[in-house]
Amino acid sequence: MARHSVTVKLNFPSLASSTSEAVNEATTKIARRAGDGFIGDVIWTDRPHGAVRATTYKARLRNARENTLLKAATNE
Length: 76
Known about the structure:
Blueprint: H1 12-34, E1 38-44, E2 48-54, H2 57-66, H3 68-74
Antiparallel strand pairs: 1-2
Helix pairs in contact: 1-3, 2-3
């Protein structure tokens, strides 16, 4: 059997821009499932990262007591 060498070159900026919308949709869904006082953001470094956070005291307290974000992220 002959061995073949394959080189794959990825265009990371293009890949990141195409996945940004999916990351944004996922963070929006999680924030919506978590309820009032939560917001989702896309944070850019070398690639897009999603983050959902509590914006009010009431939401932070609810998240601390009930793990609201964890439940919202794991339930589909």
